[in-house]
Specification:
Blueprint: H1 2-19, H2 27-42, E1 46-56, H3 61-75, E2 81-86, E3 89-97, H4 100-110, E4 117-123
Amino acid sequence: MKRIVLAIALTAMCAVAAAQVRVTGDVAAEQMVEKHVELNNKVKTIPGYRVQIGSFSGTSSKANAFALRDKFVEDYPDVQAYIVFDEPNFKVKVGDFRSRLEAYAFLQQIKEFYKGYIAKDNICPEPPEQQEYAPDDEMSGDDE
């Protein structure tokens, strides 16, 4: 019986001692976590698809990628174009498509001028359109 009481007393003391322990971390680590959270709040991407129209490597790869992107933007000013550096390649990707079907439809539109393929990517979706709610007076409940 003494052992049980002693075990309970030791457990209680350990619990009290553990509750009083304060763990402090490195300030730099805390700042990095805060910066990471801040950046994640700024970048709003979702999984989706883009059409990759070019991939360049070599000495003039960067210039070629920017030239292709500029030509594409000139031809399709309403479609976003991105240059991604995936070492050692500069890739030119266009569009922000939520579904593979949307990306495929766009690829069919541009395939005469640009060779490309559909690639999974994180996309920047447009914010949803704001719609004002206005109750329809005709639907007020009086059926004639």
